[in-house]
Amino acid sequence: MIALLYSLLLLVASSTFATAASDKPLKPCTVISPTSERFFDLNPMRRLPPSKDDGKKSSKKDADEGSWHARGYDYNANFTINFCGPVVEELDAVQDLDKAMWKNVSAFYEKGNQQWAIGLENSEPIFRGRKLILNYTGGSLCPSLKSKRSLQPASLDTREIIDGDDDDDDKKKKPKEAERRKTTVISLLCDNDPLAKTSVSFVAAVDDCTYFFEGRSPFACGGVHQETQALGPGGVFGVIAMIAVLVYFAGGCVYQRTVMHQRGWRQLPNYAMWAGIWRFFSDMFIILTSSCARFMPSRRGYSRVSLGQDSSRRGRRNEDEDRLIDNLDEEWDD
Description:
Distance between the termini: 84 Å
Number of helices: 5
Oligomer: single chain
Order of helices and strands: HEEHEEEEEEEEEHHH
Number of strands: 11
CATH topology of the largest domain: Cation-dependent Mannose-6-phosphate Receptor, Chain A
Helix content: 25-40%
Strand content: 15-25%
CATH class of the largest domain: Mainly Beta
Shape: rod-shaped
Number of domains: 2
Protein backbone atom coordinates (compact mmCIF):
# COMPACT_ATOMS: atom_id res chain seq x y z
CA MET A 1 0.00 0.00 0.00
CA ILE A 2 2.85 2.37 0.84
CA ALA A 3 4.45 1.61 -2.51
CA LEU A 4 1.15 2.46 -4.22
CA LEU A 5 0.94 5.80 -2.42
CA TYR A 6 4.54 6.56 -3.33
CA SER A 7 3.93 5.83 -7.02
CA LEU A 8 0.78 7.98 -7.06
CA LEU A 9 2.51 10.95 -5.44
CA LEU A 10 5.47 10.62 -7.79
CA LEU A 11 3.13 10.55 -10.80
CA VAL A 12 1.29 13.66 -9.61
CA ALA A 13 4.55 15.54 -9.02
CA SER A 14 5.99 14.63 -12.43
CA SER A 15 2.79 15.58 -14.24
CA THR A 16 2.71 18.92 -12.41
CA PHE A 17 6.28 19.75 -13.45
CA ALA A 18 5.63 18.67 -17.04
CA THR A 19 2.48 20.79 -17.25
CA ALA A 20 4.27 23.84 -15.85
CA ALA A 21 7.10 23.43 -18.37
CA SER A 22 4.74 22.95 -21.33
CA ASP A 23 2.57 25.96 -20.41
CA LYS A 24 5.51 28.32 -20.52
CA PRO A 25 5.55 30.17 -23.86
CA LEU A 26 8.51 29.60 -26.17
CA LYS A 27 10.92 32.30 -27.24
CA PRO A 28 10.62 33.77 -30.76
CA CYS A 29 12.16 31.69 -33.54
CA THR A 30 12.01 28.49 -31.48
CA VAL A 31 9.84 25.42 -31.88
CA ILE A 32 9.46 21.92 -30.46
CA SER A 33 8.97 19.00 -32.84
CA PRO A 34 5.61 17.28 -32.27
CA THR A 35 7.05 13.91 -33.31
CA SER A 36 10.53 13.77 -31.75
CA GLU A 37 9.93 16.47 -29.06
CA ARG A 38 13.32 17.98 -29.89
CA PHE A 39 13.85 21.68 -29.32
CA PHE A 40 14.92 23.88 -32.25
CA ASP A 41 16.37 27.35 -31.75
CA LEU A 42 16.98 29.26 -34.99
CA ASN A 43 18.05 32.53 -33.37
CA PRO A 44 21.78 31.89 -33.98
CA MET A 45 21.03 31.79 -37.72
CA ARG A 46 19.69 35.32 -37.72
CA ARG A 47 22.02 38.04 -38.98
CA LEU A 48 21.91 41.35 -37.10
CA PRO A 49 22.95 44.82 -38.25
CA PRO A 50 26.09 46.38 -36.74
CA SER A 51 24.08 48.03 -33.97
CA LYS A 52 20.50 47.93 -32.77
CA ASP A 53 18.49 49.91 -30.28
CA ASP A 54 18.16 46.92 -27.95
CA GLY A 55 21.91 46.75 -27.44
CA LYS A 56 22.54 43.60 -29.45
CA LYS A 57 25.46 43.74 -31.84
CA SER A 58 26.50 41.35 -34.51
CA SER A 59 30.04 40.29 -35.17
CA LYS A 60 32.18 42.26 -37.60
CA LYS A 61 32.13 39.36 -40.06
CA ASP A 62 28.33 39.21 -40.08
CA ALA A 63 28.11 42.95 -40.53
CA ASP A 64 30.43 42.82 -43.53
CA GLU A 65 28.63 39.90 -45.18
CA GLY A 66 25.13 41.21 -44.47
CA SER A 67 22.20 38.83 -44.77
CA TRP A 68 22.31 35.35 -46.26
CA HIS A 69 22.59 35.14 -50.04
CA ALA A 70 21.30 32.53 -52.48
CA ARG A 71 22.21 32.37 -56.14
CA GLY A 72 19.25 32.35 -58.53
CA TYR A 73 21.00 30.59 -61.45
CA ASP A 74 18.48 30.59 -64.34
CA TYR A 75 16.12 32.97 -62.55
CA ASN A 76 18.39 35.87 -63.53
CA ALA A 77 18.41 37.31 -60.02
CA ASN A 78 20.10 36.58 -56.72
CA PHE A 79 18.20 36.43 -53.45
CA THR A 80 18.91 37.98 -50.06
CA ILE A 81 17.36 36.26 -47.04
CA ASN A 82 17.47 36.48 -43.28
CA PHE A 83 16.06 34.05 -40.72
CA CYS A 84 13.35 35.14 -38.27
CA GLY A 85 14.03 38.81 -38.87
CA PRO A 86 14.34 41.53 -41.49
CA VAL A 87 17.31 41.71 -43.79
CA VAL A 88 20.36 43.66 -42.69
CA GLU A 89 20.56 45.70 -45.90
CA GLU A 90 18.72 49.00 -46.21
CA LEU A 91 16.03 48.91 -48.90
CA ASP A 92 15.15 51.98 -50.93
CA ALA A 93 13.13 50.85 -53.94
CA VAL A 94 10.78 48.02 -52.93
CA GLN A 95 7.95 47.60 -55.41
CA ASP A 96 4.25 47.30 -54.52
CA LEU A 97 4.87 47.69 -50.80
CA ASP A 98 4.33 50.60 -48.44
CA LYS A 99 7.49 52.32 -47.34
CA ALA A 100 6.61 51.66 -43.69
CA MET A 101 6.85 47.92 -44.41
CA TRP A 102 10.29 47.99 -46.01
CA LYS A 103 11.96 47.52 -42.64
CA ASN A 104 10.08 44.22 -42.19
CA VAL A 105 11.21 42.56 -45.42
CA SER A 106 12.98 39.26 -44.71
CA ALA A 107 13.63 38.16 -48.31
CA PHE A 108 13.99 40.05 -51.58
CA TYR A 109 15.72 40.11 -54.95
CA GLU A 110 16.85 42.89 -57.25
CA LYS A 111 16.36 43.37 -60.97
CA GLY A 112 17.90 46.50 -62.32
CA ASN A 113 17.28 49.31 -59.90
CA GLN A 114 14.11 47.76 -58.52
CA GLN A 115 13.72 45.55 -55.45
CA TRP A 116 11.04 42.92 -55.09
CA ALA A 117 10.09 41.68 -51.65
CA ILE A 118 9.25 37.99 -51.49
CA GLY A 119 8.12 37.90 -47.87
CA LEU A 120 7.91 39.81 -44.60
CA GLU A 121 9.53 38.69 -41.37
CA ASN A 122 8.12 35.78 -39.41
CA SER A 123 9.56 34.43 -36.15
CA GLU A 124 7.37 31.33 -35.83
CA PRO A 125 8.81 28.26 -37.59
CA ILE A 126 6.44 25.34 -38.01
CA PHE A 127 6.61 21.61 -38.72
CA ARG A 128 5.09 19.80 -41.67
CA GLY A 129 5.45 16.27 -40.38
CA ARG A 130 9.19 15.98 -39.84
CA LYS A 131 10.06 18.95 -42.04
CA LEU A 132 11.01 22.22 -40.36
CA ILE A 133 9.51 25.07 -42.38
CA LEU A 134 9.82 28.85 -42.21
CA ASN A 135 7.22 30.84 -44.19
CA TYR A 136 7.43 34.47 -45.30
CA THR A 137 4.29 36.08 -46.72
CA GLY A 138 3.05 39.53 -47.72
CA GLY A 139 5.74 40.48 -50.26
CA SER A 140 5.38 42.45 -53.46
CA LEU A 141 2.44 41.83 -55.79
CA CYS A 142 2.59 38.77 -58.00
CA PRO A 143 2.35 39.25 -61.77
CA SER A 144 -1.12 38.91 -63.25
CA LEU A 145 -2.10 35.47 -64.49
CA LYS A 146 -3.77 36.99 -67.55
CA SER A 147 -0.41 37.68 -69.08
CA LYS A 148 0.39 33.99 -69.00
CA ARG A 149 -1.01 31.52 -71.48
CA SER A 150 -3.47 29.09 -69.96
CA LEU A 151 -5.43 26.40 -71.74
CA GLN A 152 -8.51 25.78 -69.63
CA PRO A 153 -11.79 24.31 -70.95
CA ALA A 154 -14.73 26.69 -70.93
CA SER A 155 -17.51 25.81 -68.53
CA LEU A 156 -20.99 25.61 -70.02
CA ASP A 157 -22.61 26.41 -66.68
CA THR A 158 -21.20 29.92 -66.65
CA ARG A 159 -22.67 30.97 -70.03
CA GLU A 160 -25.32 33.70 -69.95
CA ILE A 161 -28.52 33.72 -72.02
CA ILE A 162 -28.70 37.00 -73.91
CA ASP A 163 -32.01 38.16 -75.44
CA GLY A 164 -33.48 41.39 -76.69
CA ASP A 165 -34.77 42.42 -73.25
CA ASP A 166 -31.40 42.62 -71.53
CA ASP A 167 -31.14 46.39 -72.03
CA ASP A 168 -33.30 47.10 -68.98
CA ASP A 169 -31.45 44.64 -66.75
CA ASP A 170 -28.56 45.71 -64.59
CA LYS A 171 -25.28 44.71 -66.04
CA LYS A 172 -23.41 42.24 -63.89
CA LYS A 173 -20.02 43.36 -62.71
CA LYS A 174 -17.20 40.97 -63.18
CA PRO A 175 -15.51 39.99 -59.90
CA LYS A 176 -12.11 41.51 -59.41
CA GLU A 177 -9.21 39.17 -59.24
CA ALA A 178 -7.80 38.93 -55.72
CA GLU A 179 -4.35 40.40 -55.31
CA ARG A 180 -1.69 37.84 -54.68
CA ARG A 181 1.58 38.66 -53.00
CA LYS A 182 4.92 36.94 -53.20
CA THR A 183 5.68 34.34 -50.54
CA THR A 184 8.74 32.36 -49.53
CA VAL A 185 9.00 28.82 -48.16
CA ILE A 186 12.30 27.78 -46.56
CA SER A 187 12.84 24.11 -45.74
CA LEU A 188 15.49 23.77 -43.04
CA LEU A 189 17.62 20.62 -43.01
CA CYS A 190 20.05 19.36 -40.40
CA ASP A 191 23.78 19.41 -41.13
CA ASN A 192 25.57 17.18 -38.61
CA ASP A 193 29.02 18.39 -39.57
CA PRO A 194 30.23 20.48 -36.59
CA LEU A 195 32.41 22.58 -38.91
CA ALA A 196 29.60 23.22 -41.39
CA LYS A 197 28.24 26.72 -41.88
CA THR A 198 24.69 27.78 -42.46
CA SER A 199 23.82 27.99 -46.17
CA VAL A 200 20.75 28.80 -48.25
CA SER A 201 20.10 27.58 -51.78
CA PHE A 202 17.36 28.48 -54.23
CA VAL A 203 15.15 25.56 -55.32
CA ALA A 204 12.31 26.84 -57.51
CA ALA A 205 9.83 29.62 -58.18
CA VAL A 206 6.18 29.05 -59.13
CA ASP A 207 4.52 31.74 -61.29
CA ASP A 208 7.01 34.31 -59.98
CA CYS A 209 4.89 34.30 -56.82
CA THR A 210 6.02 31.46 -54.56
CA TYR A 211 9.72 30.84 -53.97
CA PHE A 212 11.20 27.71 -52.45
CA PHE A 213 14.53 27.60 -50.67
CA GLU A 214 16.52 24.99 -48.81
CA GLY A 215 18.59 25.87 -45.77
CA ARG A 216 21.21 23.68 -44.11
CA SER A 217 22.60 24.39 -40.68
CA PRO A 218 23.74 22.61 -37.49
CA PHE A 219 21.14 24.69 -35.66
CA ALA A 220 18.41 22.85 -37.58
CA CYS A 221 19.36 19.57 -35.89
CA GLY A 222 17.57 20.36 -32.64
CA GLY A 223 18.45 19.41 -29.11
CA VAL A 224 17.11 19.13 -25.58
CA HIS A 225 15.02 21.98 -24.26
CA GLN A 226 17.01 23.28 -21.29
CA GLU A 227 14.10 25.16 -19.76
CA THR A 228 11.99 22.01 -19.42
CA GLN A 229 14.19 20.91 -16.54
CA ALA A 230 13.44 23.77 -14.19
CA LEU A 231 15.02 22.00 -11.18
CA GLY A 232 18.69 21.28 -10.70
CA PRO A 233 20.12 18.10 -9.12
CA GLY A 234 19.61 19.49 -5.62
CA GLY A 235 16.02 20.43 -6.38
CA VAL A 236 15.24 16.99 -7.81
CA PHE A 237 16.73 15.33 -4.72
CA GLY A 238 14.68 17.64 -2.49
CA VAL A 239 11.46 16.77 -4.32
CA ILE A 240 12.18 13.03 -3.98
CA ALA A 241 12.93 13.45 -0.26
CA MET A 242 9.72 15.44 0.25
CA ILE A 243 7.67 12.77 -1.53
CA ALA A 244 9.31 10.06 0.62
CA VAL A 245 8.44 11.96 3.83
CA LEU A 246 4.84 12.44 2.69
CA VAL A 247 4.52 8.75 1.87
CA TYR A 248 6.02 7.85 5.27
CA PHE A 249 3.53 9.93 7.23
CA ALA A 250 0.52 9.10 5.04
CA GLY A 251 1.18 5.36 5.05
CA GLY A 252 1.98 5.34 8.78
CA CYS A 253 -1.20 7.21 9.68
CA VAL A 254 -3.32 4.86 7.62
CA TYR A 255 -1.67 1.82 9.24
CA GLN A 256 -1.99 3.16 12.81
CA ARG A 257 -5.63 4.12 12.30
CA THR A 258 -6.90 1.03 10.49
CA VAL A 259 -4.73 -1.74 11.99
CA MET A 260 -3.70 -0.44 15.43
CA HIS A 261 -6.95 1.54 15.93
CA GLN A 262 -5.12 4.60 17.22
CA ARG A 263 -6.67 8.04 17.43
CA GLY A 264 -5.41 11.58 17.78
CA TRP A 265 -1.67 12.18 17.78
CA ARG A 266 -1.04 8.48 18.34
CA GLN A 267 -1.92 7.92 14.68
CA LEU A 268 1.50 9.24 13.73
CA PRO A 269 4.03 6.52 12.87
CA ASN A 270 6.54 5.92 15.70
CA TYR A 271 4.57 8.15 18.04
CA ALA A 272 6.76 7.29 21.06
CA MET A 273 9.90 8.40 19.22
CA TRP A 274 8.38 11.70 18.09
CA ALA A 275 6.96 12.33 21.57
CA GLY A 276 10.40 11.73 23.11
CA ILE A 277 11.96 14.15 20.62
CA TRP A 278 9.32 16.75 21.47
CA ARG A 279 9.92 16.34 25.22
CA PHE A 280 13.66 16.64 24.69
CA PHE A 281 13.36 19.93 22.84
CA SER A 282 10.80 21.29 25.31
CA ASP A 283 13.09 20.43 28.24
CA MET A 284 16.03 22.06 26.50
CA PHE A 285 13.92 25.16 25.93
CA ILE A 286 12.99 25.34 29.61
CA ILE A 287 16.61 24.85 30.69
CA LEU A 288 17.84 27.56 28.35
CA THR A 289 15.15 30.05 29.38
CA SER A 290 15.78 29.41 33.07
CA SER A 291 19.53 29.80 32.56
CA CYS A 292 19.03 33.07 30.74
CA ALA A 293 16.69 34.32 33.49
CA ARG A 294 19.55 34.21 35.99
CA PHE A 295 21.43 36.87 34.06
CA MET A 296 18.47 39.23 34.09
CA PRO A 297 18.68 42.18 36.55
CA SER A 298 16.58 41.75 39.73
CA ARG A 299 15.24 44.18 42.37
CA ARG A 300 17.73 43.49 45.18
CA GLY A 301 16.32 45.93 47.76
CA TYR A 302 12.85 44.45 47.78
CA SER A 303 14.17 40.90 47.68
CA ARG A 304 16.24 41.39 50.86
CA VAL A 305 13.31 42.78 52.83
CA SER A 306 11.07 39.97 51.69
CA LEU A 307 13.67 37.36 52.55
CA GLY A 308 14.12 38.80 56.08
CA GLN A 309 10.41 38.73 56.77
CA ASP A 310 10.11 35.19 55.46
CA SER A 311 12.99 33.96 57.64
CA SER A 312 11.56 35.57 60.80
CA ARG A 313 8.15 34.08 60.14
CA ARG A 314 9.66 30.65 59.57
CA GLY A 315 11.62 30.94 62.87
CA ARG A 316 8.49 31.79 64.87
CA ARG A 317 6.59 28.91 63.34
CA ASN A 318 9.34 26.47 64.27
CA GLU A 319 9.39 27.70 67.89
CA ASP A 320 5.63 27.32 68.21
CA GLU A 321 5.80 23.80 66.82
CA ASP A 322 8.55 22.86 69.29
CA ARG A 323 6.54 24.19 72.23
CA LEU A 324 3.46 22.29 71.15
CA ILE A 325 5.42 19.06 70.84
CA ASP A 326 6.98 19.52 74.30
CA ASN A 327 3.58 20.09 75.87
CA LEU A 328 2.18 16.97 74.28
CA ASP A 329 5.13 14.92 75.48
CA GLU A 330 4.65 16.14 79.07
CA GLU A 331 0.95 15.34 79.02
CA TRP A 332 1.68 11.91 77.62
CA ASP A 333 4.21 11.18 80.37
CA ASP A 334 1.72 12.19 83.06
